[in-house]
Structures are given as structure tokens and as C-alpha cells.
């Protein structure tokens, strides 16, 4: 199997400047993760290649297996079927840091929030739960899957911040970030015009609504 395309040079820095919302709009793709998957501490940011896996409900064995396989610099994207339990906590955070994992996106739950926050490890989750998990099955580790309806394969680019999470197909990353930079430049010009007295109706070509409102 061929390796996924390498991310664009300086992708993380460029993505941090733009943010997930601008990149989502620029992509033109259905790449936005369920908005209920949110950062557990304000200011967390991820821009990194995905390493997808699937856990059975209430079972985190796939995560432990992934820790021995995940390429350094990756973000774990963990599907659980939206089952909220404590799949992840302080122990796995320390293991992830040692393995070179740069963050976690999970449609289930996590715990040990204070410890994770203190370590400034980026985690985006559907919920918080004290309930532990078993270790009995591993449906999928490192294979393409869907995450809250969004396709994800190893090497796709994840961008996550306070606005939400997007997953950009590896082959669309360069186009998306270039389009995002063009969009950001256009918005910067628009904001300058707004400070000089222009209106959003004028700048967005919506002046016909002045008559109908």
C-alpha cells in the first residue's frame, strides 16, 4: 500500500494562523466533525496527520494497540460509536506523549481532565465520564473508517481548535490551505473596509435586502 501524501510544508503553522472555520469554508468539503466533539480545555490546537482507530463501546483495547503502531507526530482519531465512557485518562496521556502522539480526537469520553489540562495535551471529546473501560476487542487500528460521518484514513490532515474539528483528505490539503489563505486575505480587506464605514450588505452584494427588510 502506498504511503499517504506528505502534508504541505509548514502545514501546522499555516493552519494555526487560519483556524478550523476558515479552512472548512475554504475546503468546500463535508469535512466538519460533529460539533459535539469539543476541546476539553480552551485554547487546545492540533494540526497533524490522522491515525484512525475504532473501539468497541466501553472497550479501549484498540487505543493500547495503537500506541505501539502510531507514527510519531500523529493525532489519534478514535471512533467509539458515540459511547461516552472514560476511554482515555492521565496514564494514556503520558503514554501518548512518550510515543510522540500530538493529540486525541474521540467521539466518546475521557476522564482525568485536570491532569490532562495541566499537561496541555490537546484532547477533543464528546463528553467526560468517570466510567472505566474493558480491554477485550479491537475492531480496527490504523485502517480507513468514518468518524462522526466524516471519512478518515491514515495521513489525512486533522485541524482542531476552539471552533471545532475538521478532517481534510491528504490529497486535498495543499489546495485547501492555499484557498484558506486566499479567503483570509479577502476577509482582512473586508474588515478594513468595514472600519472605514462600509456595510456587510454592500461588501457581500446583499443590498437588495435593504428594500425587502
Automatic annotation (TrEMBL):
<dbReference type="GO" id="GO:0008168">
    <property type="term" value="F:methyltransferase activity"/>
</dbReference>
<dbReference type="GO" id="GO:0046872">
    <property type="term" value="F:metal ion binding"/>
</dbReference>
<keyword id="KW-0808">Transferase</keyword>
<protein>
    <submittedName>
        <fullName>Dimethylmenaquinone methyltransferase</fullName>
    </submittedName>
</protein>
<feature type="binding site">
    <location>
        <begin position="89"/>
        <end position="92"/>
    </location>
    <ligand>
        <name>substrate</name>
    </ligand>
</feature>
<dbReference type="Pfam" id="PF03737">
    <property type="entry name" value="RraA-like"/>
</dbReference>
<keyword id="KW-0460">Magnesium</keyword>
<dbReference type="GO" id="GO:0032259">
    <property type="term" value="P:methylation"/>
</dbReference>
<dbReference type="InterPro" id="IPR005493">
    <property type="entry name" value="RraA/RraA-like"/>
</dbReference>
<feature type="binding site">
    <location>
        <position position="112"/>
    </location>
    <ligand>
        <name>Mg(2+)</name>
    </ligand>
</feature>
<dbReference type="InterPro" id="IPR036704">
    <property type="entry name" value="RraA/RraA-like_sf"/>
</dbReference>
<keyword id="KW-0479">Metal-binding</keyword>
<keyword id="KW-0489">Methyltransferase</keyword>
<feature type="binding site">
    <location>
        <position position="111"/>
    </location>
    <ligand>
        <name>substrate</name>
    </ligand>
</feature>
Amino acid at each position: 500500500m502506498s504511503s499517504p501524501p506528505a502534508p504541505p510544508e509548514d502545514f501546522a503553522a499555516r493552519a494555526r494562523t487560519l483556524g478550523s472555520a476558515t479552512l472548512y469554508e475554504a475546503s468546500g468539503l463535508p469535512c466538519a466533525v460533529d460539533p459535539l466533539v469539543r476541546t476539553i480545555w480552551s485554547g487546545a490546537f492540533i494540526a497533524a496527520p490522522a491515525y484512525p482507530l475504532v473501539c468497541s463501546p466501553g472497550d479501549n483495547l484498540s487505543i493500547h494497540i495503537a500506541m505501539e503502531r502510531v507514527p510519531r507526530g500523529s493525532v489519534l482519531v478514535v471512533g467509539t460509536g458515540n459511547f461516552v465512557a472514560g476511554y482515555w485518562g492521565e496514564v494514556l496521556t503520558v503514554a501518548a506523549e512518550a510515543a510522540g502522539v500530538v493529540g486525541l480526537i474521540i467521539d466518546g469520553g475521557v476522564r482525568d481532565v485536570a491532569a490532562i489540562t495541566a499537561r496541555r495535551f490537546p484532547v477533543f471529546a464528546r463528553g467526560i465520564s468517570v466510567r472505566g473501560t474493558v480491554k477485550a476487542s479491537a475492531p480496527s487500528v490504523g485502517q480507513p473508517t468514518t468518524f462522526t460521518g466524516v471519512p478518515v484514513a491514515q495521513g489525512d490532515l486533522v485541524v482542531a481548535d476552539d471552533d471545532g474539528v475538521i478532517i481534510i483528505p491528504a490529497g486535498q490539503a495543499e489546495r485547501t490551505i492555499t484557498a484558506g489563505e486566499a479567503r483570509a486575505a479577502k476577509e482582512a480587506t473586508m474588515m478594513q473596509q468595514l472600519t472605514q464605514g462600509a456595510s456587510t450588505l454592500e461588501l457581500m452584494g446583499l443590498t437588495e435586502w435593504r428594500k425587502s427588510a
